[in-house]
Design brief:
Number of strands: 8
Radius of gyration: 17 Å
Largest sheet: 8 strands, parallel
Order of helices and strands: HEHEHEHEHEHEHEHEH
Strand order of the largest sheet: 7-6-5-4-3-2-1-8
Helix content: 25-40%
Shape: globular
Bound molecules: pyridoxal-5'-phosphate
Length: 230
């Protein structure tokens, strides 16, 4: 089942790339494995997937120990400052940095572990009360401030688009995130390389790819529906 789903997702990404004159290798598929057991992750791993996304610190820590260490873990959920220390040396990219204070803590822990932490800034692209992330208008200033930290590398932006019935409705938000990223690059010059756009989930990743996404985060489309009661 998981392998067949991956075939389908792969095909859809390829087609979206073809439609928008993009190269398949410029889009990374992140398999979002939250709530799913290690056995499911191994199925995707055996298919060839090495990028996995989780939204809870405890879940990353538990799965990290049970799975091969050539997996790249992506922290895609809201991150509390006091939990940074548990995952700082386990994740390859933190997608959800949404405050200067969180970045400060990441800097502190990264320095302690003698590593450079790779991060994205999360933007609340549709200004939804229910979502984390900073406002689009604050993005440039926050990137500028965080870029001063020696142990943090900002790679780009992330957004969670609204939950919509018709994926096409989210095209405007993906286009907007792309534009914000280009604007930041133009305004801040020097050593900031905003080359990652983490956008698109099961319902809308094809649209996101057409609008320039470089990381799509697909859960349900690969592993099936999640059961939060387990
Ligand atoms: C759960 C989650 C996803 C995957 O959602 P699906 O709709 O199952 O593909 C992507 N990004 C984030 C931040 C998530 O929390």
């Amino acid at each position: 089942m998981i392998a067949e789903n991956l075939d389908i997702v792969e095909q859809k990404i390829c087609r979206a790339c073809a439609r928008s004159n993009r190269r398949r290798e410029d889009v990374t598929l992140i398999a979002v494995s939250k709530t799913k057991p290690v056995s499911d992750i191994l199925e995707a791993y055996n298919y060839g997937i090495r990028e996995f996304g989780e939204n809870k610190v405890q879940e990353i820590v538990a799965k990290y120990d049970q799975l091969p260490h050539d997996i790249h873990w992506h922290m895609i959920g809201h991150l509390q400052k006091n939990k940074v220390k548990y995952i700082i040396d386990k994740v390859s990219l933190i997608h959800s940095v949404d405050s200067f204070e969180l970045a400060e803590e990441i800097e502190k822990q990264a320095e302690k572990h003698n590593i450079i932490s790779d991060i994205l800034i999360e933007i609340n692209i549709a200004d939804e009360d229910t979502k984390y992330g900073i406002r689009a208008s604050e993005a440039c200033k926050l990137v500028d401030r965080i870029s001063e930290f020696p142990c943090i590398n900002i790679h780009g932006l992330m957004c969670i688009a609204p939950n919509v019935d018709i994926p096409e409705k989210n095209r405007q938000y993906f286009a907007e995130l792309h534009k914000i990223s280009v604007d930041i690059t133009n305004n801040l010059s020097n050593n900031i390389h905003m080359d990652v756009l983490s956008m698109g989930m099961t319902g809308d990743y094809e649209i996101a790819v057409e609008e320039g996404s470089s990381m799509v985060r697909v859960g349900t489309g690969i592993f099936g529906a999640r059961n939060y009661d387990l």
